[in-house]
Design goal:
Blueprint (H helix, E strand, L loop, with lengths): L5 E6 L3 H12 L4 E5 L5 H6 L1 H20 L13 H25 L2 E5 L2 E5 L2 E4 L2 E10 L3 E3 L13 H4 L8 E5 L3 H12 L3 E5 L11 H13 L3 E3 L4 E7 L2 E6 L4 E4 L2 E3 L3 E3 L32 E3 L10 H16 L13 E3 L5 E5 L2 H8 L3 E7 L2 H6 L5 E8 L4 E8 L3 H13 L4 H6 L23
Parallel strand pairs: 1-2, 1-6, 2-3, 6-16, 8-9, 8-14, 9-10
Antiparallel strand pairs: 4-5, 5-6, 7-15, 11-12, 12-13, 17-18, 18-21, 19-20, 20-21
Length: 453
């Protein structure tokens, strides 16, 4: 039997890698994890957490505006962007410290540096070669940008989280969740935002009613969305960026952010030398046990390009540690995974879209509700909430649930439990609503939408 330095070496100390490593260490395995940046990964350092903190900060603009009709007088309010960024970074430092302590408490060795596979059992980190019986790749993804003239003048979501000052005007290129989230943040903070999308609508892959409703709400807030538009080139003219669009129109702005996709961060890892096969998009091919084409090398999280969500990466890392070191062969269940877009207003969803449900079942029953939330009947804000249930009529099972509006992520998290249990529309109807709340709409929708002709 070979004598290895470690039972497990993990490359990448994000959410999935840390979960797998610290559980493995807790089970008694000898574990090392390597990271060239700070411990925490995309979610903690460049994604979910810092982005949500900026979203919270931006929402105070709405709260103060809405407070007037509730009798509040707020004078002299102003926003200090630099203070928000500094406080956000303090919180990230705290979270980084927690992650470091979790690793220490579970006897995981942290190796700082870029990990490269020398062969299928050897990882080189900062000139040191270490061997392991098992290797886990959990390096996540990274923003991608098109190869157009002037692309060097733009920023990504990474840099948007660290802007030294707010621009007066900003162009965001892309129609996915990152783009619409940052459009909401910067618009609420007073930036003149233009969003450029190649398609005719935002949020490809989400339910059409949610996409269309959010498009309308964003435009109400003053965000200008240029649909079916492409950027051909970018020029920097002093402090101004000049964008030439596909129709030869020129658009001037102070800052350009690209959010046109992410790619698995697999370049320069030596995966070919270790016999690990990749898809054409650079993501790692794995089976249901997170095993790559090399039987003792595994991968979890965004690097596999399955479902790019932090909780899914954590579930995958947990399952892997249990399988390798705790004699548990459970796998991650990818059905009815809830997700949210922290746009303004937010969207949350679980299950199938209407298009997916019709493709799978043929006929489906649609129940929906479109209303002004109670809080805005007094605030005066012209903002709607939209809710939608998709039901498979033969079984009466709810197969899709979607919401756009205040508190959508908090509400859908609870609904997701019901859907995971296979709840029927009759069971939704039999549930007592909490009144007055927006959430009660999900148990009071009784009228089916007419079938499309």
């Amino acid at each position: 039997m070979a004598n290895y330095d470690y039972d497990l070496i993990t490359i990448g100390a994000g959410s999935g890698g840390v979960r797998a490593s610290r559980l493995a260490g807790g089970y008694g395995a000898k574990v090392a994890i390597c990271e060239e940046d700070r411990v925490g990964g995309t979610c903690v350092l460049r994604g979910c957490i810092p982005k949500k903190l900026l979203i919270y900060g931006a929402h105070y603009a709405d709260y103060m505006e809405d407070a007037v009709n509730y009798g509040w007088t707020i004078e002299g309010a102003s926003h200090d962007w630099a203070k928000l960024i500094a406080n956000k970074n303090t919180e990230l430092d705290r979270l980084n410290g927690i992650y470091l302590r979790i690793l220490r408490d579970n006897n995981v060795d942290l190796k700082e540096g870029h990990g490269v596979l020398v062969d299928d059992h050897t990882v080189e980190i900062a000139g040191e070669r270490l061997t392991a019986e098992n290797i886990l790749i959990a390096v996540g993804g990274w923003p991608t940008m098109p190869d157009i003239p002037g692309i060097e003048h733009v920023i990504t979501s990474n840099e948007a989280l660290e802007l030294p000052a707010l621009p007066k005007r900003m162009v965001i290129v892309g129609g996915g969740y990152i783009a619409v989230e940052f459009a909401g943040v910067f618009s609420s903070l007073g930036v003149e935002v233009t969003e450029i999308i190649r398609a005719d609508n935002i949020l490809r892959g989400f339910d059409i009613d949610m996409r269309t409703s959010l498009f309308e709400e964003m435009e109400k807030r003053g965000i200008k969305i240029l649909a079916e538009t492409v950027v051909e080139s970018i020029e920097k003219q002093g402090d101004v960026l000049s964008l030439r669009l596909g129709n030869d129109e020129i658009l001037e702005t102070d800052c350009v952010m690209y959010a046109t996709g992410r790619r698995a961060n697999t370049d320069g890892l030596g995966l070919e030398a270790a016999g690990v096969e990749l898809r054409d998009n650079g993501s790692i091919i794995v089976d249901e046990m997170n095993r790559t084409t090399q039987s003792h090398i595994y991968a979890v999280g965004d690097v596999t390009d399955r479902i790019q969500l932090t909780p899914v990466a954590i579930q995958e890392g947990h399952a892997l540690a249990d399988m390798l070191f705790n004699k548990d062969t459970r796998t991650t269940d990818y059905s009815n995974v809830p997700s949210a877009v922290f746009s303004t207003p937010p969207i949350a969803t679980v299950g199938l879209t209407e298009e997916q449900a019709r493709a799978e079942f043929g006929d489906v029953d649609i129940y929906d509700s479109n209303f002004k939330p109670l809080v805005h009947t007094l605030s005066g804000r012209d903002e709607r909430s939209v809710m939608k249930l998709i039901v498979e009529p033969k079984s009466d099972r709810v197969v899709g649930c979607h919401m756009m509006g205040l508190d959508a992520p908090e509400i859908i998290q609870g609904v997701a439990i019901a859907m995971k249990c296979g709840a029927t529309k009759a069971q939704f109807d039999a549930t007592t609503g909490i009144h007055p709340s927006s959430a009660e709409e999900f148990v009071t929708m009784r009228s089916k939408r007419p079938d499309p002709e």
